[in-house]
Every structure is written in C-alpha cells, then in structure tokens.
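Posting for a labmate who doesn't have an account.
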Amino acid sequence: MPKLLMSDGSRVGTAYVNPDPRVLGEIEGIVQCPCQYQIRNKDGERQPIYDVAFIADGAQLAVTAGPEVLIYDTADGNLVRSLRGHKDGVLCLAALRNGFVSGGADKQVVIWSSKLEGVLKYSHTDTIQSVSCNAVGGHILSCTASDFGIWSPEQKNVTKYKVPSRICASSWAPDGQHFALGLFNGSISIRNKLGDERAKIERGNSAIWTLAWNPSRSSNGDVLAVGDWDQKLAFYDLNGRQVGKERALGFDPCSVSFSENGEYLVLAGQDRKATLWTSDGIRLGLICERDNWIWSSKAQLKQNCVAIGCHDGTVAVYKIAFNTVHGLHNDRYAYRENMTDVVIQHLTTDQRARIRCRDYVKKIAVYKERLAVQLGDKIIVYELFNDGASDVHYRIKDKIHKTLECNLLVVTSKHIVLCLDKKLQCYNVAGEKEREWNLDALVRYIKVIGGPRGKEGLLVGLKNGQVFQIFINNAFPIPLIKQTASIRCLDLSLTRRKLAVVDENNTCLVYDVKTKQLLYQEPDASSVAWNSELEDILCYSGNNTLSIKAGNFPPHQQKMQGFVVGFTGSRIFCLHVYAMTTVDVPQSASLVKYVEKADYDAAYKVACLGVTETDWRKLGLGALEALRLDVAEKAFARLRDLHVMTLIRNIRRMQAEGKNDLEYFMAEVYACTKRYHEAAKLYKRSGHPQKAIEMFTDLNMWEYATQIAQQTNSAQSQHDRNDPMAAAKYMKAIDILGPAGAMDELIGIVQLERCLQLFRKNAQYAYAIETLTKIGRFEQLLELHIELLHWDEAFRLKLHLPYARWLAMNDRFLEAQETYRKAGYREEAVHVLEQLRENAVIEQRYDDVAYYYWLSAREHLDLLPDNLSFEELNREQKRCLQNFHQTYRLSEVYYAYYHISEYVEQPFTMHQPETLFNMARFTLHYLNHNQPVLGISKVTVLYALTKLCRTLEAFKLGRDIYEKLQLMCIPAEWQETIEVGSLTIRSKPMRDKDTLQPICYQCSALNPLLSSKGDHCTNCLEPFVHSFYSFLSLPVVRFEVDRDITHDEASRLIAMDPPASANKRRKQMIQKLHDGSDSDSSGGLAGSKPSSALSRDDPFTRQLAALQRGSATTYSPVKVGRKVLMAMDSPIVLIRQWDKKCVPPEYYRVMVSDVPIRLCNECRHFFLEEEWVDQVLTHGHCPFCRHKPSSMEF
C-alpha cells in the first residue's frame, strides 16, 4: 500500500539549539522529506498530480491520480481509500464542509460525502478545468473551456453560463456572494452568485492560470491574488481595482493557495519550487524544491501543513513550525509578527509599536536603547527615538548590507555579535568584523550581561557543559565553570556573584562565581532568571510550575505555563507558545521567611519589590519588637501610620537621652500592637504601673484598670526598685496638693482612689464625679448624687444610663444616643454619633452619614450656653462652636454627594439632570477649597459632571473637567468612557448653555458654572443660597443690621407696616408683575431678574445699587439701618437663628417676591416651598434633617 511520507518541524527558541541538518536555510522549522513517493498506474507509469485538497478539517488529503482520487491520512501517511467515480483523468478537487467535489476529463462533476461516498454527479459538455466551493452557502462552481455551472444545494440543479474563453481557475470570495474566473485569454471576470458580471480585469494575452481569494478581509476589503503566465503576481479588490504593486516572479505560477487565517499564501509552479509569501506579496522563503513542475499546492496551517503535487507523480506534505523570533532586555520585548513585522512591547506599561520591514525577518535582538533586525540580505540597527524609559518608538541608526549566516543574533551599544555553531563573530555597526571567537563546542545559550559602552560582557553556555564570559573588547574568553551536562539556560545575579545554570537534565544549579563552588541545586527546571533588583532571589520554571527561591529557603511554587525569561521586581516575564505575558507575583512568602529568621534588612529589600500592606505591617511589627527601629520606621512610613512612627521617634529620643529601659520600650511596643495584657505586665515590671492604668482607662477597660490600681502600690513598687526617695516624693505630691486645694493638678495623679478621698474631703464634688465617671464606679457615683441631693442626676443615672447601654448592646444606636442626651451624657452621645458616622462612610451609606453629621452638629450646638456671646466663651466652648459649624457644613456636602454617587452607581435616579448638576457643582466647590473629605471621591463627582454636561449642553465646562480627569487616577471601568468622551466633546461648541449660568441676586452678575472663588459670586463675593432639594440658587440676599440694633429691635422693625409711600409703590410693582409687563428670565432660578419684583425706589434696592463691587477680597454682608428695616415687608425677610447668643442670627431679603421660600424650623435650610411641601407630603419629613413637621408648620 502506498504511504505518504511527512516531515516534522523543529522549533528554535530564545536559547540557540544545534540545528537539524535537514532544515532548509530560507525558512526555519521546515524539514525536507528524506525520500519521496511517486504515484504510478498499473503499467508503472508516473501519474501527474494535478490537484490536492485537505478534507475533513485537514485530517485527510485528497489526491488526483489518473481516474482515481486517493485519500490519505495526514497523521501517519497511510492510504485510507481509493475512490473511482470518473472514467477519465481527474483534473481538479475542492473541499466541502462535509466532503469534497472532483471534476475530470470525462466532463463529469462528482460530489463526495464525508463518508467518502459519491452522492451526486452532473455533467458538462467539455472537460472540467476547475471546481470551487462556496464556504458560506455550499454552492459549487464548475468550469470548463466554454462555460461554467453553479450547483445550489437548495435547488439541486445546475445553472450554466457561456464564457468567451477557456476557464483555467476559479475561486469564491469569503462573503459567499461573489466568485472570480481566470480565463486563458488573460482576463479575469468577477461575478455575483447569480452569474452576473460585476467587474472585468484585462491583464494582456497571458493565461490566468491560478487565482484565490484571501479568506480574511483586510483594510482593502476582499482581496484576490492572481498568478498569470506573464510570470507576475498581482492583487485586486472586489471592484477590480489593483491593490498594491505587481510582483515579478521569474516563473509561470501554477498554484496559489492561502492559509485559513489569510496571513500567508503558498505559490508553486514551473520553477519546481513551493515558496511562502505574505498576504500582501512579500516573499518569505523556500518551502521545498522538487524535480518537476508543481501543479498544485495547498496550505492547511491549522495543522501547519503544506501539501504539494508534482507532474512526476510526487506527493508530499510538509509541516511548518514558525519559530518564536524575539528578543528581550529588562522590560523591553521585541518579537516578529506576520513574518515581516517587528512589534516592540514595553512589558510594564504595555505600550506597543510596530516596525514594518516588508521583508522576511530572520532574527531580532534588543539591548537597552538598541534594536537589531536581521532580514534576508541585511541587518538594520535601530535606536530609541526618545530617551524615555517607557518609549517604544525606534528609528534607523545603521544598516549592514551583508548576507550573514547565523543561528543567533546579539546586539550591544556599538556592536552586533553573530553566533554560528562553534563560532562567535563581532561586527561594528559599519559592517566591519572586529573580532572572532572559536569555541570548543556548539554554543547553546548566549546573553548580554551589560557593561560599559563598547565593552559589554556576554555569558555563553556550550553543549559540552562549559560556561564562558566574553567581553566585546577582549579576544580571550574567560572560563567560569565546567560541568558534564549540556547547557540549556544561564543567568548572572545582580552583583554577578552567583551564576544560575539549567542543564539538559532539567536541573537548576547555582554556583559561586568567585570560588566555583556549587551552592545549591533544584530539580524540574527548564529556564531560570535572577531578579534584576535583588541579589538573592531567582525564579525558574518547569513542569508547568513557577518556583521562586529566596536565599537558602525552600522555593515557593505556583502554577504557570510557559518559560521564564525575565524577573524584574515583582514581575516575572513568561513566554508561552508565541505570547509574552507578565506575571505579578507577591513576595509575601519570601518576606515571611526572612522575618522568621529575623533578617530584617533582607526582608525590607524583599518588601520593596512589591508586597501588600498586610506584609508591610508584619515586617514593621516584627522589626519593632526586635527594636530594629530603622527598618520599622521605614515600614510604617510606607503605611503612613503616624501613631507608630511617633512611638518610634519617642523611643529614639529616650535612647539618645541614655534611657535604655528595654522592658519599658517593649511595653510601649506591645501597647501599640494591641497586646495590652503583655504590655501591662512589662509596664509593672519596668516600674511604670501608672502607664498600664492609663492604657486600660483609655480603652474603657475599667475592670483591668481598677485591678492594677488595687494590686499595685506605687510607693511599694518604687521601694522594690531600691528607690525610696522616688516613692516618698510620689506620696508627698498627693499629700501636698490635696490640703493646698490644687485640685487641677491633683486630677492628673494616677492614684485615683486617694485622689477621690481628697476631693470629697475638700468638697470638690465636681472633680469627685469626674473621677468616679473615669474609673466606671457608677454605684458610688449614684450614692454621691443622692448624698448631694442631686435628685435629677440620680434619677437620670439610675434609669437612663443602664437603658442607654442596653440599647447600644442591642444595636439600637440612635435610641441609645438620644437616651445618653436625656441622661446628660453629651460626650457619650457625641461618641455614639462618631462611631455611626465612621461605619456609614465605610459602608458608603452617604445619606446616613449626612444625617449623623447633622445630629452631631445639633449635639455640639446644645452644648453651648444660651446667653453668652462669642467673646465670653471659654476655649472648650469655642472649640465646640467650631465643631458645630464644621459638622453642619459636612452634613450638607455628604447630603449632596449621596445623590451624585447614586446617579453614578445606579441605573435610575429620582432627580432631574439640572438638580444633579447643581449638586455636583456644590460638592465640587467645597472639595476645591477645603481638605479632602473621608469617603467622598472627587473623581466620582467629576465623572458625574461630565455626563451631566453633555446632557445639559455645558460643553465648555465638560471639556475642562475631561482635562482634569486625564491627570487623575481613574477606575479601569471608566477609562474608556472618559477617553472617548474627551475626544467626542471636542466636536461640540466651546460654550455653556446660557440658562445654566447662576445669577447673583445682589449685583445681577452672571457667574461661571465652576468658579475659582468657590460657591460665591465672582463679582461681589455674595454666597449663593441653595434650595436643599433642587440646589437651585435662591433669589435671596443676606444683610446685617447696624451694631446698635439688637435682634429683638430688628425683628420688631421688620414686623412693622412699611411707610405708606413705599407700600403704595410696592403694590404698583406687584400689579405690573401680575399683568405680565416684566417677564424676562435669567439663568439662575427660572423666573425673573432680581429687579423684576422690586422698585428702584425701594431703600434696600437703592443701597444695593450704590455698593462698590469687584474690588473686595473678603465678603461682608450689606449693612442696613432702621429706616431700611422699617421699609421691608416681613413676608420677604427670612431670619435664620439658632437661639444661641454666640451664633448671631442671619437675615435674608427675598429679591423675587413671587417665589415662595420655606425655612425648615429644625435644620434651618432653605427650600422652594413647593419642593418642601411635596417632600413632606410624600415622605413625611424634611428631606435633609428628617424632621417631621407639625400641622402648624404647613
């Protein structure tokens, strides 16, 4: 039985391997058959092979052999079946999805099934010259010398069409709607599947012997490759226009065939050769050369196979293995793509650039700023266009116009090195050979290890196990080690003290370069790489496992496919098949081993490569407990833990002062690391029990604080340490301060028991109550209140305090906070709110955060006295007032941000775009002029604004915000949206919609949407007052009364009826409004301009008109006197007051009288009345403070 002989490809990777002598020189990985098989007939005559076709997804090969069709198994070359369906020679074949079709000199077309059975036959009046199949619709095109027919699987009939000349070749386009015919008269006819001609191409008088459509669409659409017997190769599109330029072949082409992916085509013909070309007509090299014409060649690159059929009866299949031609230096990787392009990739930034060489790329080498590319007849040396570390754009520096044979190419800053078997040749960039090294065995591996420019070193591994170091400027190789097994991979450590070798036994061996001593070895390694930033860490791969070894510790392993080729920091570069990938590996395992060994210097170096915050804390705590303060300080500096860094600096200061009490230092460390009981023991042992009591007191661990206070007598402790003088001084301090009445100093003494006795003896009951509260003795506190006849306090303590604690234990925190308030424990109430705020921020419940901040503001306000002015407050009360203003303002910001975050995160929102737009502007104004707020993302606000700007046509503001976002760290899921938006918004007009711009109701100035002066008028600095639902700017102007006017007098003057003349003018103006005589609108609040509801004769309006604006640097409200107050109507004056003398009332004048405004009696926020009423009726409470108004408030 005849057998089809096949050849296997060999693959050459990064390390150079001794080549198989059967590999052809022009294309790597294609092996010539060691012998050929000729198909003969029964008379022994050779049968010309006119056509071959891969069928059954490439598992079988159909071959024409006289009147038979031979089916071979492409896996083993055995003949599967001989098919006899024709009475004369079979001339053409075409693969179907389920079978194939054949046409012959007997004028018959036979359709064969996937089971190799004939299922249909139809005939023509002439010899069948060509058949082709439509891969989309299943149509079959059969061509003869006078006509062509189209068989349709739907109609089961053949429609035939006449042609003026013999058809030599045919091919269906990949869309299944068109096909091309190559005629003997030199023309090409492009037709649709109905047979109508779409385009006709005249190429002269030479026969169009072969053509084929590219199965993959390019930028030019569908492309047709045409080979004619004018010895040219040309390309055309579907409309008959030529694509690119013609290629002169120098022989008559008989067959052109594309690979399935359309990247390559195989060309064969009268020159007895099969050659590989790119899809755009660049010759790559020779596949094979036979003894006779090659009539047919078919590519099946799913299995990397090319089949050829020759005139002398030879059939052969070649396996092609495209090598990975690439180069790597640090994080700069270059590789070949499409056989003619070089792609440079920066592995860290993933930036890429492409160099189109338009020639077959044989070798690539990279070193620092240099890139060398070997083509067919020259070597091109490139240099970086810029000096940037992440730049990947190169330009040509030099060309060496020589055909140089090599197995591996290496480039340095001023030279290139070629490796050929046992020989290394060094050329300068001018093409002059400067040096040559002849070694004892085949070179298996070579790598540039750096050095001065023009004096770089090479690491060379040989097949006989020798490793040499070669310097470019030195003619003598330096032997490093000699072992018995052949070298597969090499690498030197960062300081060049250690050499890692992988031999052919897959063993990784590490040597000391200086002593030549074997330090250790590891099995199952195929490649190895040292870390380029740390001396003692290497990684190696093998058996789909990545191993990372630090020092002499056991390796840490994880699953990984491919070969390790580089190791930088915490990134490992891995080559898998044809793709280079970056694997980020945490160094946690290595760090833990170094910490356990107490090698904190090495652990810190490992941590710098890249570890988690948990690992940094583990290192810092370990170093701190070992009192390695230098390492601990650097670790906690990374974490920005100011508390621990302060502790470290205190210990350093004490050491500098000569206080080297190790037990006390360790106690401080344990307290900092939350090992409280161990810290307490060391505090007592070091003679500082008071520190233990303070620690447990701060933690509210009253039981332990009391236990230590009872067990430890400070005087006895001092006596045990042989320091009776210190003990005497300690007790004397209490005895002196107590009788002297210095209670402020006495409260600081740690012996609270004795202090308590002295406080009660001296009738300092306030200090006694504070002491009992601190140590948690509420029973004694209750007895003290009863003794002092403080019945209200006693009842509150007896009832409210235990109930508040029970509520807190059962997660009813708001009720607990209110109960603490009723019990008079304001600090506890504030503390509960602080905890609720922090938890709500973590859980991103920003509406609750706003509410808790409002409650906190109210608590701070309640702590202030009612009848004291600001100047009369003490320091603690002023701080409380400051906290009130701060928490009140933050409650507003969180309230607005809640709706913005909901708009970004949720698909639907209840608010109109204008409302969200105003909220985002309000929040952004605050963030731009204040410290960052916990939990509020400025990026989220800006991102929301970009979407709203496009919706509301605020294109100028949107463009500015896009530019700001480009400078920020953006979430990955928003990156593409922002980049596309920043480009598309440039097509919009550079302006904002006029109606969006806020108007100042004091000076009538239009303001930009985003102001550098914050939420204030840019002209007069008047702050905008917002409705706290829609956040529209309300038509109000703030004013102050003269200093000699009290609030009560001002309220009385405003409540008085205005003078008759003013009242008459005002009524006339209001009547005009109702008649519609003044209906201008503005961009602030939808309605009227500030002057639309007010007469110019109004005293307040005249005073506003007379103000000098534009020169002020700070804002001060308008001051009015008694006459102006008397002229005001009380309905258009709003007063915000907090019933505290230290918080002066704020007066606001409504400038548009027909816009009703409501002031919430609880939170003192302004609302448009219809918005406020709607929200209260819908939800039952104020939208901001959740206060439920009574029926009297409507």
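Reply:
Got it, the structure tokens are right above this. The first helix runs from residue 588 to 596.
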